[in-house]
Amino acid sequence: MIIVKLGGSVITDKKRENRARKKVIDRLVREIKKSKKEIILVHGAGSFGHIHAKEYKLDRGFKSRNQLKGFHITHSSVRILNQIVMSSLYNHDIFSVSLPPLSFVEMNNGKLKYIDLKCFEESISIGLTPVTFGDIVFDDELGFSICSGDILVLNLSRYFKPEKVIFVIDEDGIFDKDPKKYKDAKLLREIKYDDLPVAEKSIYTDVTGGMGGKIEVIREIAKEDIDVLVVNGNKRDRLFGSLTGKKVKGTLVIGG
User: Fold this and answer.
1) Which of 105, 109, 156, 192 lies 20 to 30 angstroms, CA to CA, from 115?
2) Does the reported pTM lie above 0.90?
3) Please, what are the domains in the chain?
4) DSSP letter for each residue of the chain
């Protein structure tokens, strides 16, 4: 079994509110179908979540009743994106079940307090593909907080010990510095987890921690002796190649 994370930057236009990249979603789902691999699918929220969460400062927890509107908009918007993904899976005969984090995650002061993955086990046992996503959840200390798709991938990886984990992003992999800012940035094609760079969080910032947070999650997954692949979802067949063991352009973080 393989855990796949489809980044919000790939499946949505992060600069345009609630704009899904449906052709990209369909192509990535076709690549999953073609691979014939058993997967758990996690997707980001992109412009269906980040824009609203930032506007209403949802990452800071419950401070005022005005944020309840933001909670409603954010949660509803992310569910719309999830339905688009689910429809694409159905259209490609990948029969799936949507598992919103609100139903199995609890947080405390922005940190994961409790996660119940029984619903994932039951889904897999009867042949359904579990699908979950980054969303806002309840928090004992803050009232609510954001549970990112990356945190879900980390905890699913620790529990299920997959063959590998694949992060599908909008860059060719992990670079030694931000490729959007530095033209001389070098792609790290293969690296041990303890040699990963500390990402410049100020450059990659968003409400879920950006690239800096993603690299830390990848480091933690690889510590569990699980290889992690980071590939560009905007490039055709890179996800398919990663799923099927072919060598593709990207970053391999060696677990151990």
Assistant:
1) 192
2) yes
3) 2-254 (3.40.1160.10)
4) -EEEEE-HHHHB-TTSTT-B-HHHHHHHHHHHHHHT--EEEEE--GGGTHHHHHHTTGGG----THHHHHHHHHHHHHHHHHHHHHHHHHHTT--EEE--GGGTEEEETTEEEEE--HHHHHHHHTTPEEEEE-EEEEETTTEEEEE-HHHHHHHHHHHH--SEEEEEESSSS-BSS-TTT-TT--B--EEEGGG-----TTTS--TT-HHHHHHHHHHHHHHTT--EEEEETTSTTHHHHHHHT---SSEEEE--
